Amino acid sequence: MATLAEKARACRECESVLPLGPRPILQVHSDARILLASQAPGRIAHQSGVPFQDASGRRLRDWMGISEPEFYAPENVAILPMGFCYPGRGAGGDLPPRPECAAIWRRQFLYRFDGIRLTLVIGQHAQKWHFDRKAPGSVAEQARRWMEQGGDRVPMPHPSPRNNVWLSRNPWFETRFLPRLRSAVRNALAGE
User: Which helix (H) or strand (E) segment is 25 a member of?
Assistant: First the structure.
């Protein structure tokens, strides 16, 4: 896993189209118990080299019910975004992850995880890749389906403050979804 991570961090495949240049950001360990299948690093992560070290990350850790040290322990949580580099900004926020990244790297990493017990699938780009592409449904529909049926892949909205409107329209997410998510996270970290 370490050799593959080194190769991924040295990737320059999209260099010509990345506005701030390449800086692949991921957190991996073959024994990780939770996989965060997220979108792509934001501008702050690009600058610091640390994923989810912003308001989105604080909210995500709160949703998961874990501390910052637990979150950044790679044997606990692997962070494997669909795109490893900041894609730049568009009219409505950050651009989608570069598709080359998932095509080159995703399966290589997924095959090397031995202990993943729970995958948090964050945002529409990750959900299109990790769920049935024919009828994935909205984030709300997928999240409700997970609450009813369970499973080891959890569809989630992005924790960005830009999603505050979605959260206010879906109060069940905080009252019913998050307690179940926190329980699943605790069980995964405990090895259950």
Answer: none
